[in-house]
Amino acid sequence: MVVLQTVLNGLLTGGLYALIGIGMALVFGVMRIVNFAHGALIMVGMYAAYFAFTLLGLSPYLGWILSALLLFALGWLLYRGLIRPVMGQSDFMQILLTTGVWLALVDLAQLLFGADYRQINLGIANAVVRLGPLRVSSGYLLSFFAAAVVIGLVYAFLYRTELGRDVRAVAQNREVAPLMGIDVERVSAVAFALGAACAGAGGALLLPLFYLYPTVGDPLLLRSFVMVVLGGMGSVEGAALGGLVLGVAESLTGYFWTDSYSQVVDFLLFLAILLVRPSGLLGRQRA
Amino acid sequence: MTLSTPTPPPSATSRPGPLLSVRGVTAFYDEFQALWGVDLEVREGEVVTLLGANGAGKTTTLRVISGLLRPPSGGVRFAGREITGLPAHRIVELGIAHVPEGRQLFPLMSVEENLLLGGRVARVRARRPANLERMVELFPILGERRHQAAGTLSGGEQQMLAIARALMSEPRLLLLDEPSLGLAPRVTEEVFATVRSIAARGVTVLLVEQNVLEALEISDRGYVIEHGRIVRAGAAAELARDAAIREAYLGL
Ligand SMILES: Nc1ncnc2c1ncn2[C@@H]1O[C@H](COP(=O)(O)OP(=O)(O)OP(=O)(O)O)[C@@H](O)[C@H]1O
Ligand SMILES: [Mg+2]
C-alpha cells in the first residue's frame, strides 16, 4: 500500500514534469535546439505567479494563464532577438546562447528579488484528500489536473489546428516545409514561445508546492532534458510519458533510498534509455 | 496571421514569353560553386527535361527555382514576375510546386494530412476539400491508405503521395526531381504515366530524371547540364537521337 501511495505521489509530480517536458520537446522537435534556458523560464513563470498572488490575490490555479501568456511573449521576443540569429549556426553557439539566457535570467531574479526563499500559503492546496486507502495533498492534485488541462490544450493546438499542423510539419521535415507554403521562421517563433509558455504554466503550478528562489528552475532543466530523451528526441507525447516515468522513478527512489538520490536516478534513467532505446520510450524513429 | 496574399491570376492578356525563365543563375554550398550561370526556359504547357550526370547541378537548379536556395547572381522569372530571392513559402503561393528528390514526406502524418499540407496555401485553401477528394480519386491507392502514416507506404506509393501533395496547390509549374528514383520498373512506368496525364491536363512540367529515354519520350524539349552549366538544349526527340547523349547517359 505504501508503494502504491508512493507511485501515486510520483504520478502527480510527474504530471507537472510532463508539462515542463513537452515545452522542451516542442522547442527541440521544431528547432533541434536544446534550450538551456528552459529551467530559468520555469523560474520566471513561478515568480510571475508569485507576484500575481501576493499583489493581485490571483490564485496560481488561475495565475498560470497569466504566467503562460507572459512567458509566451518573452519566448517570442527571445526567439526574434536572440535565437533566430544563431539558427543554422553550430550547436555550440546555440548552447552558448541559451545558457547565456539562463544565467542572465537567474542573475536578474537574484538582483530583483534577492536569494530569499519564498512561499505562498494557499488554503485549498493544504488539505489532504482521501482516495480510498490513499491520501494525497490537494495542492498536488489540483496542480496535476491543471497541468493535465494545459497539456490537453497544447495537444489540441498541435492536432486540431492548422498552425499546430504546421508546427508538426516543421518538426518532421524542416527542409520541405517551406515548399508547403509554411513560413518556418514564424513556426519556429511559435514553437519557442509555446515551449516557454509551457514552462511558465508549469512554474505557476509548482508554486503552491515548492519554495521559490532564483535557481529553483535549475534542477528542472536537467529533468526536462531527461524527459526529452526518454520521450524520443522531440516527441511531445513521449516527453509527457517521460515526465510521468520520471516522477514515479524519483518518488520510488525517495521511498526505497533517500530523496537526495532522486537526481542520480534521473541520470541513470537517462543513460539507460540512451543505451537501450535511443529512440525513446515510444520508440518512433525520426526521419 | 501573416499568410501571404493570394496571387492575382496572371492577367488574361498574359504577356508573351516563357512561363519560367532562369537566367545566369549561380549557386553555392558554402565555398563550393554548384551552378555557374544556368539559363533555361519553360513555356506554358510544355514538359521539359533537365538531364545531367550525378552531381551536375540538377537538384540545385530546381532548388533555386522553388526558392529553397538563394542565387547570389542571376535571376528567375515566373509568369512575368521576378521571383529571384523570394522565400520558398512565397513562391509556392505563386504557383510553383516542387516535388523534391527522395519524396520528403511528413512520415508520421497520415496520407490525408500530407495532402492537406500540400493544399494549405491561401490561393487554393477554399478548394482544398474538393482537391483532396480529387487526389484520392486520381490516386486510388492514396484513398485506401488515407489514414495510414505516410512513412509506412511503399516507395511507389510515397512518390505518388509526393506528387499528389504538390498537385494540391494547383500549380501552374510542377518541378519533379527524379520521381522514379529507387522504384521498380513497373512502378516507374506508373510514375511516367502519371506525369504524362498531369501534363495532359495543362500543368507545365520541369522534369529531372535518370531514365533519360523515358523522360525525353514524354517531353517536348530538354536541356543537358554538366558541372553546373547548361551545355545542350534542344527538342526532346532530337536529344534522344543524339549520339553523344546516348553515350553519356545511356551507355549506348
Ligand atoms: N548540401 C550540399 N552541400 C554541399 N555540396 C552540395 C550539397 N548539395 C549538393 N552539393 C554538391 O553540388 C553539386 C550539385 O549537386 P546536385 O544535387 O544539384 O546534383 P544533381 O545533378 O541533382 O545530382 P544527382 O543526380 O546525384 O541528384 C554536387 O557536386 C554536389 O556534391
Ligand atoms: Mg539531384
Describe the protein's architecture and organization.
The complex is a heterodimer of chains A (287) and B (252). Chain A is mainly alpha-helical and 287 residues long. Chain A has a single domain, classed as ABC transporter involved in vitamin B12 uptake, BtuC. Helix content of chain A is 72%, strand content 3%. Chain A contains ten helices and two strands. Chain A has helices at 2-31, 38-56, 60-86, 91-113, 138-160, 162-172, 184-206, 218-231, 236-256, 262-276, and strands at residues 128-131, 134-137. In chain A, helix 1 runs antiparallel to helix 7 (184-206), helix 2 (38-56) packs across helix 7 (184-206) and helix 2 (38-56) packs across helix 8. The longest helix of chain A is centred in the first third of the chain and has 30 residues, at 2-31. Chain A is globular. With 252 residues, chain B is an alpha/beta fold. The N and C termini of chain B lie far apart (55 Å). Chain B has a six-stranded mixed sheet with strand order 6-7-8-3-9-10, sandwiched between helices. Chain B has a four-stranded antiparallel sheet with strand order 2-1-4-5, covered by helices on one side. In chain B, 48% of the residues are buried. Chain B has two domains: 18-95 and 171-252, 3-Layer(aba) Sandwich (Rossmann fold); 104-170, no CATH class. The longest helix of chain B is centred in the last third of the chain and has 16 residues, at 185-200. Chain B has helices at 58-66, 88-94, 111-118, 128-138, 140-144, 155-167, 185-200, 212-217, 236-241, 243-250, and strands spanning 20-29, 32-42, 47-52, 75-78, 81-82, 96-99, 173-177, 204-208, 221-226, 229-235. Chain B has ten helices and ten strands. The chains are: A mainly alpha (287), B alpha/beta (252). Chains A and B meet through helix 6 of A and helix 2 and helix 3 of B. Bound molecules: adenosine-5'-triphosphate and magnesium ion (MG).
